[in-house]
Amino acid sequence: MPDEQLIEFVEQLSGEVHLRVEESLGSGFVRLRSAEAERRQAKHDIRSVEDIVIEMLRNARDAEARHIFVATSKEEELRTLTVIDDGKGIPADLQKKIFEPRVTSKLDSMVMDTWGVHGRGMALYSIASNSLAARVAASAPELGSAITIETSSEQLTERSDQSTLPHVQRNEQGALEVVKGPHNIARTTVEFVLAGNQVVNVYLGSPAQIASTLLDYGQKSLKREELLFCKDSKMLPLVHRLAATGDSAQLQEECAELGLKLSERTAHRIIAGQIKPLAPLLKSVASRTKHEQAHKSSHLQKDSRGLQISQPDNDRFVRALESAFEVLGERYYLSLVDLPKVRVKGNTISVRFEIEKE
User: Fold this and answer.
1) Which of 238, 319, 348, 358 is most buried, judging by how many CB atoms fall within 10 Å of its CB?
2) Which residues, in sequence order, are CB contacts of 73 under 8 Å at separation 6+?
3) How does pLDDT run across 213-234, given as a tens digit for each residue?
4) Angle at 205 between CA 300 and CA 165, to 5 degrees
5) What is the C-alpha separation between 195 and 178, in angstroms, rounded?
6) Helices (H), the chain
7) What sign for the dihedral angle of Cα 51, 52, 53, 57?
8) Dihedral class, residue 181 (left if φ above 0, else alpha if ψ from -120 to 50, else beta)
9) Angle CA 128–130–135, to nearest 5
């Protein structure tokens, strides 16, 4: 009988209060049992999806990961996060236990960073307590980890604007810092990289974009002979495994084992090079900010004779157009060559889609 069902059964027999309270102190005061205190702490630790993302990034960093790939997608109220890293990995017999309270690999050390103390063995327990599902999709010692989390926006909040990237600039000391942007998943990720002095590269995108990036990363990281003589992809680090796939069917299967759900058509597009690999998120953000500063007077930002559109609003509009294009793309087998081009002239907004037929 699963633990949750067992607890419910005992509660029905002895009453919920008996399980929650260790001692009655009188006058309405009680001493909670440790399990109940942990449960309440776990609920308090995670307040949003962004909190989950930062805890997952901290876990990967503490496992000595130097490359972290974050795939995120949302269908109606369901948010799916899969974090894949090249850290130490998790033994098979511990892959369920790590979601239990006080389970940690940091017996002799704790980490104090921007977000507080890390190493109490409560992060993954807190995440699991606030999620619909939490599991290790794949992992092995020294081969990295892939962990998938599912949340509901009806139960756990998240920023409504997840498409806008943050803006960064150099401060007086010459260090990059975030200066504006909603406190969404992208900003959380960039702030994590900056707080760690950019030691870790983090890639953020859709499952398809992350799959394309992992394929490219593996192909560039492994020597040709390593791929030719690889008899079992399970012996490769997780971040290299997609490079050992030979066709779209194998790619789709390998992605599923890493917690990345792809359609057959999407896998084919990745193999065909139609979905471009991502650059590290911080590099993309810094490059875009620099480009925007160099073109402040461009038509993407304003036209002095009429309508004016801010760059953040333009970015959100472009991403919405990109998403809306999928309606035509799926039906007519089309794909975008580049992001939609928005042009403002007077009181007219023109949109240009550059496409190719598959």
Assistant:
1) 238
2) 79, 80, 206, 207
3) 999 999 999 887 777 677 778 8
4) 35
5) 11
6) 3-14, 16-20, 34-45, 49-62, 123-129, 185-195, 207-221, 224-228, 248-257, 264-271, 281-294, 311-332
7) positive
8) left
9) 25
